[in-house]
Prior knowledge:
Layout: H1 21-28, E1 32-36, E2 39-42, H2 44-63, E3 67-68, E4 74-76, H3 77-83, H4 85-88, E5 94-97, E6 103-106, H5 111-121, E7 130-139, E8 154-164, H6 167-187, E9 192-196, E10 205-213, E11 219-224, E12 230-232, E13 253-256, H7 263-270, E14 278-285, E15 288-295, H8 302-308, E16 314-316, H9 319-326, E17 343-347, H10 348-351, E18 356-359, E19 365-370, E20 380-382, E21 400-415, H11 417-421, E22 425-427, E23 433-435, E24 437-444, H12 445-455, E25 457-458, E26 461-462, E27 473-477, H13 483-498, E28 503-505, H14 512-522, E29 526-530, E30 538-543, E31 549-553, H15 557-567
Parallel strand pairs: 3-7, 15-17, 17-20, 27-28, 27-29
Antiparallel strand pairs: 1-2, 4-6, 5-6, 7-8, 8-24, 9-10, 10-21, 11-12, 11-21, 13-19, 14-15, 14-16, 18-19, 21-24, 22-23, 25-26, 29-30, 30-31
Helix pairs in contact: 1-12, 2-6, 2-12
Amino acid sequence: MKQSQTLIPTLRETPADAEVKNHQLLLKAGFIRQNASGVYSYLPLGKKVLRKVEEIVREEMDAAGAVELLMPALQQAELWQESGRWYTYGPELMRLKDRHDREFALGATHEEVITSLVRDEIKSYKRLPLTLYQIQTKFRDEKRPRFGLLRGREFVMKDAYSFHASQESLDEVYDRLFTAYSNVFRRCGLNFRAVIADSGAMGGKDTHEFMVLSDIGEDTIAYSDQSNYAANIEMAPVVTTYEKSDESEKEKEKVVTPNAKTIEDVSALLNVAPEKCIKSLLFKVDEEYVLVLARGDHEVNDIKLKNLLQADQVELALPETVSDILGCSIGSLGPVDMKGDVKVIADHAVQAITNLVCGANEEGFHYINVNAERDFTVDQYADLRFIQEGDASPDGQGTIKFAKGIEVGHVFKLGTRYSEAMNATYLDENGRTQPMIMGCYGIGVSRTLAAVAEQFNDEKGFIWPKALTPYDVHLVPINMKDDHQRELAEQLYDLLREKRFDVLMDDRAERPGVKFADSDLIGLPVRITVGKKASEGIVEVKVRSTGETIEVPKEQLVTALDELLRTIS
């Protein structure tokens, strides 16, 4: 492709609203352009990389026994109402009505559509297992689109769904697709880890996320410093055993704590360590309110609370709700002598504290020397806090460290969550009706592109891995008005294309400095410069990743490129 015949609108300045490296470079190098907040056009270079990611995904999915199809982005509300998610998915689901006032959603995901499709076509266990996938644009009304393609309102996703007659069959396909996902991200050159995760709005259990390690990641990974254990921080269990001190219990006392509303305030005012205080938080769990207690230096993990109570939705109660139900403000909330009748659940660490400090349910007052069971009742103890760095690894090997990650893939064992709700059944070998067992598997294709862009760059621009580069070679004649340079460049352009190299030729009437800057910015693996020695048939070949430069006669160019590209990862 000749640069004068395509659209590569490079920029000299970094766009002011681009916060992270991949977003900045994708805009500067002319790979994407923003149309609206969280909505982008993929320009020719961006589309070529996107297509290469898709090709890798297809190859690995096909090899794993999945079959491609394409489902509609416009989905009937009735399907989402069958599954129950029309009411629980939240404001991220883009909803609309047609001219006949019928309700639809723009596909955020396709569990409902695929389940309805398979239930109408598959009736016997003999047709199972079956794994279907698609690569398609998805829509989610993100509250705060950010980081370019990493969190948008319109994005490209590969989603797959498997249907089974047994748990063993699901486990087998899950493991096969787990391996396929690992292959995809490895082939894309990414530094990633598969971590234990929460299924969120998808439902089901037994799920893993594939995280690309990056300082700009929005997710925190908890991993062992001595083993392969890794989990999303939301899902990492705390295995610490808390020893109760031999301190004798003291008399409970109400003390004045003016303007002390946080653990830090109370700790400083009363000169007690935060771990001797407890924080009391009121949560709305589906339609029930629950008071959750945690040690002052710990943070309550709402995902653990949700999973413990097998709830669909968990949210922190608003200040006015706390006042209405418990008759006090958030800053003075505590489990002693509560006015409201709510269930009390505490993290295990609370049970081990002797003579703790808590809110007195009265503005400006706290209790000291409070002890569980003597002064208040806990309905249930459980692991309810976020794991912390330095905690013991849940697998018993080493201690926990944190890293940031960008989620690029997610695999779920859905079970019968959707098949039971939507009556997707089959006849087993005994002629009995059974619900299909399901799995679900997603890869953010456009997000993978952005994750690669985030990892493969330097101060000059991109350094695309060979598997995803938009072109193999950047052919750069310095001066197209020079007859020797122009003729040699045209000869090499035709020769390399004939030899099946994907070539981008910069035939623009630009200064050499502009051409070289754009070449580094675009970041193709090899640059061939046709310059002063064109009359001798000699060109300069430069490897983008290492900066290595060699002079090569035109007769040896194909051999030299073959050798160089073999050594480039």
